[in-house]
Amino acid sequence: MTVRFLTVAALGALLLGGASLAVREASSSSAAATVPVPQATKCPSDLATVTVQGYGSVQGTPNLLTLSLGVQTQAVTAATALSQNSSKAGALVAELTKDGVAQKDMQTSGLSIQPVYSGPKSRLTGYEVTNTLTVTVRDLAKAGKIIDDTTKAAGNSARVNDITFSIQNDSVLLGEARATAVSQAGVQAQKMASAAGLALGPLCSLQDNSSEPSPQTVGAGFAAQAAAAPTIETGSEQVTADVTAVYQLVPR
Question: What is the pTM of this model?
Answer without folding.
Answer: 0.60
